[in-house]
Amino acid sequence: MSLKEAKKVDTNRYELEITIDGQAFSDAIVKVYKKNGKQISVPGFRKGKAPLALVEQYYGESVFYEDALNLLYADALEAAAEEAGVEIVDDKMDFDLVSISKADGVDFKVTLTVVPDVELADYKGLKAERVTPAVSDEEIDAELNQMANRNARMVSVEDRAAEDGDITVIDFEGFVDGVAFEGGKGEGFSLTLGSGQFIPGFEEQVAGHNVGEEFDVNVTFPEDYQAEELKGKAAVFKVKLHEIKKRELPVIDDEFAKDVSEFETLAELKEDIKKHQLERKTRAADEDVENTLVDAIVDGMKAEIPDAMIENRCNQSLQDFAYRLQMQGMNLDTYLQYTGSTADDFKASFRPQAEKQVKMRLALEKIVKLENIEVSDEDVDAEIKKMAESYGVTEEQVKAAVPVKEMKKDLAVTKALELVKSSAVVTDVEKKTEKKAPAKKPAAKKTTTAKKTTTKKAEEKKED
Prior knowledge:
Elements: E1 2-10, E2 13-20, H1 22-36, H2 52-59, H3 65-84, E3 94-101, E4 105-113, E5 127-131, H4 137-150, E6 153-156, E7 167-176, E8 179-192, H5 202-206, E9 214-220, E10 234-248, H6 254-260, H7 266-299, H8 307-327, H9 332-339, H10 343-348, H11 351-370, H12 377-391, H13 395-401, H14 404-423, E11 425-429, H15 447-463
Parallel strand pairs: 5-11
Antiparallel strand pairs: 1-2, 2-4, 3-4, 6-10, 7-8, 7-10, 9-10
Helix pairs in contact: 1-3, 4-7, 6-7, 7-11, 8-11, 11-14, 12-13
């Protein structure tokens, strides 16, 4: 199997002429015969017992040609693309069979879409600002308050009326024109006042009442209410208030620190909060620098990107999202029903990010080539070990799941990005400089035209 000719026929389109020699093709025919010959009947022989030569004589020499070519096609195409130095984008190809015979083998042409040529501007010495990570006392206090809220306890209130923010336990039944309606009754229902859980006006009228009181709540259903028969209707709810509860926050002190963490004092807990927030902000600052550098490279890149590459990336993002939903016990169809979206519209929402990801990958792969970046077997082994530890699987399982060739590509791209970052000029700042919007060009003045018009009129008057 070899590449006979490779030529560019259009932007990102190549025609590869590929040959498969007679011996390889004959061997493939034998393999197909051994696999499928058991199903073939030839007069004078039991089913599947006729020799290959007689099967070919009875059904024609080309009886196994198609299956034999299919057996060799993928490997032949991959080898030819590698020899031609092109990377195939998708499976949509034009196939043209030039010749085929058992003696001479196969000659065919494939026209396909390939990864585009990429031109880059400078990618070394790029400039970026890095916000110096800092954690304020207010941020630490905010985290402590969140921890206190998560550890709040509910206590019953009996010495006052219900207020906004309280959790009330009520019985209720709704009536329209004096008739109870379906779905309008509840017993022992927990309602947080101010949550907006009930229709407008209901919760506000529960506030101000005490435990044990029975009272009416007068409301009007919204015009866009889901139940058609209740839209815009006035209703009366008979309500009984059984219990009022409020959230009681713990005092934030040393005892609180002992209860919610492994630390003995509040000071130690604060220091730990500061440490973790600083780590998070440091990661965010580093990621922001990386994004700035990548954006600069992409902005300076020139390439005519096939739409198929972006479409493939969108499909992958959609599959990844569907997988995450599955892990949460939901499927994509159900999610789309809940959100009122279609599969096509939802996939289109991934397109801007997909386009950026494709451009970034192309740019970094170009840097890999320009810098002759190589990935060693030691690099691969280290990555496999890292992945195995991260996912809690064996190294053998990682090797079975992730092709080494693809892993090497990813590692090479990572090295390219590290090269860009290590050569960048990064300035530490307290606050990033705001980018100024490009100045608008002033509107063209029409003075010249006006002068010409005036002159022309003057000349006409002079002639008169």
